[in-house]
Amino acid sequence: MASAPSPSSSSSSRSPLRILFVSLLLHLLLSSSIPRSLATGFLSVRHRFAGRSRSIADLAAHDLRRRGRALAAADLPLGGRGLPTDTGLYFTEIGIGTPSKSYYVQVDTGSDILWVNCITCNNCPKKSDLGVELTLYDPKSSQSANLVSCDESFCSSMYGGEIPECSSNLPCRYSVMYGDGSTTAGYFVTDYVQYGQVVGNHQTKQVNASISFGCGAQQTGDLGSSNEALDGILGFGQANSSMLSQLAASGKVKKIFAHCLDTINGGGIFAIGNVVQPKVNTTPLVPNQPHYNVNLQAIEVGGALLQLPSDLFVTGDKKGTIIDSGTTLSYLPEAAYKPMMNAVFANHQDLSLHAIQDFVCFQYFDNVDDGFPEIIFHFENKLSLNVYPHDYLFQNGGNVYCVGFQNGGMQSKDGKDMVLLGDLVLSNKLVLYDLENQVIGWTIYNCSSSIKVQDDKTGEVYTVNAQNISSGWRSKWGSSTALVLLTLVFCCLII
């Protein structure tokens, strides 16, 4: 996903039912002052619903919130594995400050800032139902922390220029309001962020990076509740304010990252750096879009192309198809959804289809991969996305299966024409985001195996294995400079 071009602008590609507006506010003098300081690495990511089953109603509500946050100017998270009925958010543990303290943050491939709850926060959760211990960030307790004032380049770049009536004693503030009613607001600080960096085959060392991030002073809605509480959000969006962009600007990494979500054995990989194996074919990103948009050209079901309107995938200012690992399901305009569903069930006229929440479900006793067709999405530059029956059909208890594609016509006006492909169809694929060359690509891959990444400073190629760390794992900080690795852990049911 992408980020807003400026803090006061709304996303030009908004969530069907939830609209995320991002604005930076400049007021409210800060009564405290703070010191300042440098990084890149290895993070373990865990699944938000580890070991807990969820109803299909929970999935619908949860995916609605994910889309509301993920599909706009400053959105959310990294997607997951397994049955959609057991898929939620993913989070990782990072170190912040001097001395370092651990924080659990939601990993977001599209958000444009890193923020954590601050010590002065109003309505910040004090405990979490996720089984993690929450920590409030205190800039005054970190020897390397420093307030970002409104006259600094980091702040002015977010506003798109100099800020009127700004003075060096005014903080650079942020405020994010989500369409579901939840909000986060606070001010920016700069401090060390610590994580492990790849320095050899299966080897990492601890590194520090000086990152400007949000110090959350007030949360509302879901962000203030304990059931989904984390310490903050770690954004990997395209804007200059993202952690990825800051690391790239400091010469530590290139703006290239990849993720591989494993539904077979659990676990997976999220790596920043030049992935040299597996090789990935790519398609151009649509320019000037706030998300990771690509040009979808055709949809094939069971070997036959669907007869669709030629302008179906370009409507108004919503250009291209959104590739969004922060959303569980996939969404199609009604003009594509109905022909696809007809083709999927063409050989199963005898099945009794029924609705569970907004899902089309049916009872089936055989292997779905043998009985249902493969779906192939064809993109510009001859890149295809193959989606197998076990990818788009998920089990909802017993022998009941439900379709993971959703009808955009049932969404709001803003979302009815949107094409969005979520992690339901992105799992078991190595997905590469090459922002240096403005392309994105993927290949079917065994995400429980390993990939090879190249250190662009030394030219060395290192092997990075997938991991599936237990929920009781605690990070062990190892130090250095160039490639960043995040290892994902998905504790979900298996499709």
TrEMBL record:
Span of domain Peptidase A1: 90-443
Signal peptide location: 1-39
Swiss-Prot/TrEMBL keywords: Aspartyl protease, Disulfide bond, Glycoprotein, Hydrolase, Protease, Signal
CDD domains attached to this UniProt entry: pepsin_A_like_plant (cd05476)
Residues annotated as catalytic: 108, 324
A Pfam family per the record: TAXi_N
InterPro entries xrefs: Aspartic_peptidase_A1, Pepsin-like_plant, PEPTIDASE_A1, Peptidase_aspartic_dom_sf, TAXi_C, TAXi_N
A biological process term (GO) from this entry: proteolysis
Domain of life: Eukaryota
One term of GO molecular function: aspartic-type endopeptidase activity
Disulfide-bond pairs as recorded: 361-402
PANTHER family xrefs: ASPARTYL PROTEASES (PTHR13683), EUKARYOTIC ASPARTYL PROTEASE FAMILY PROTEIN (PTHR13683:SF768)
Family in the record: Belongs to the peptidase A1 family.
The protein's name in its UniProt record: Aspartic proteinase-like protein 2 isoform X1
Organism of this sequence: Ananas comosus
Gene: LOC109726539
